[in-house]
Amino acid sequence: MDHDLTEEMELAFMSPDIDLSHEHLLPPPVQSDNASQVNGVSAQLSIGEEPTDTDDDTPLLAAKHVGPQARFASITALSPWFPEADPDSDEAQTFRVKRSQRKFLLNGCAGLAAFTFVINLGSLLYVHYDAEDKSIFSGDCDQSGKLNSILHVLINILSTCLLGASNVCMQLLVAPRRSQIDFAHKSYKWLDISIPSVHNFRTIAWKQKLLWLFFALTSLPLHFLYNSSIYGTVAVNTYVILVVTPGFINGARADARASEEQAKSRENITMYGLQDIPPHHYVETTLNEHNWRFNYSKPCRGENCDIYQTRMQQGAFGIRLDPVECLSAYTTSFGNQSDVILVSTYDLVSDTTVTEDLPLLFAAEEYRLLGPGVFWACSTTNSFDCRSPEKWKNDPNLVSNWNVYGYKIDYCLQSQHDNSDLCRVMYTAPILIIVCIMNLCKLVAIVMTRYLCLDQDDPAICTIGDAVASFLKRQDETTKNICLTDYSKITRDKQYWRGRPRIEWRPETKRWFYGATLRSSILVLSGGVAYLIASLFQINNTAGSASSFVHYGFGKINDYAHDNIQGFSDINLKFYSRVLFVNVWQFAISMLYIQYNALLTTILCNDECPKVKLHDFDAHEV
């Protein structure tokens, strides 16, 4: 070769100020069967060809691409002048390079798992030795609510880190090795690359299968229990409801037995009102639709209920409320409201003024959460919706005929019992112990995954970049004659695996949704839409409006956001059954998220594949 050309190229490699891509620094193609070598530089090497110098198996580094052919220089030739060209040199191992390596990713996952384990174990030890009566905090309800919200935000951050690290490892474990891909191709089968997939599960090694299942099983307790390791409690008052005439307020003697007989005689009388259960239609129902039980022995504590008259004289019922104020106070289970006396002068059933013969008209005890919502105040004899207080607060005429058991309420006399300092934030030691054990198991599993996935002899093909690098380095004998083809063809007919018919690939623009199969798109999207519709439908039936949840507030307790779950007499079984019921819904959301993640990753991979071309030097990682 020309001596001047040789000297010019040597200068190019020695001087860091000269751009290798400059046109005049590269030799013209040499028309010979074997590419000429000048000082270790390949003057001509077509894509897909092997280097002609069989003694030098050093990987080649592309210096310039011109037309259909590429020109290369070996790492051995470049590294003395450009140490960064050798990926094994210390100067090439920059943080940016290390950050893109799988070892860095797995070390990060292990670090996250170790960090969450230290936090969880430290929290368990702290609350176990310092907390009293399983209480982290006891006192003001506002402070308790804020602390409870903060702790649950931290729990969700920790669980996201831990489960995220676990999901990354699960995706790496189902990523096929090159040997597994070659074996599948020989059987005319395909494998997923770069997306979370259970399709590959049957082809991966048994160690990977066991680790994958271990990750999945250790995630279940975290999904179902972690959020409930810390919880808040509030005090709720039980109270007595009395419907009386003005004479009772003035000291008239009541006869509870006679009042009970009067109440029983009205049980089957019907009135027009709003149902308190779905579908909440306006229907005609009996006064005893709620199965009222007029039991004078409990609320009256005697035959005359004179205890409440005595308390009135002592000023216990010193708060007078009009109907709107009274409804606002007693249509929620939470607050300081206690025993209430409802004063009535009119009977809507008989459409007459009540007589003073029976000063006590009705008595009942609200001793439990009727949830969702407290419907005794409205019952089915009223035509307005208790679940929409903003309506009757803005228009008091809507509640002008508010009645309880058919008696129109003129005003209320309320007593209060302050429970604003009776809130607590509590922990559950068994759940925290389970969380710590699962956390430690995941940490060990991540370390084992790191060992498996960094196998240099047969590394996992996890990304599009891995696949491109692997198939450029060593072609697949089964698919080497197949042109670019799509999923529908390769799964429909085995003849495409044999390269027949050969289909010319032509670039064309397609929408992103073509990147996934129609079936998977419909299943995932319909699942999300169905979940959303079902949630809004349930909220609408329970709270009266599908948009009502936006007014509840972050971390606030609301009557329409809880339910009264029956069953189990044992207190521990009751607690854990509620824990599972509460967390099963976010578990369903998590499963839905995994499906969306797989769908979006598939679309992005299909978008990225056509971009892997001759002049594209960007890293390809998904």
Automatic annotation (TrEMBL):
It holds the Pfam family DUF6536. Keywords: Membrane, Transmembrane, Transmembrane helix. Residues 105-249 form the DUF6536 domain. It comes from the Eukaryota. InterPro entries: DUF6536 (IPR046623). The chain crosses the membrane at residues 104-129, 149-174, 210-226, 425-447, 512-534, 575-594. This is DUF6536 domain-containing protein. It comes from Aureobasidium pullulans (Black yeast).
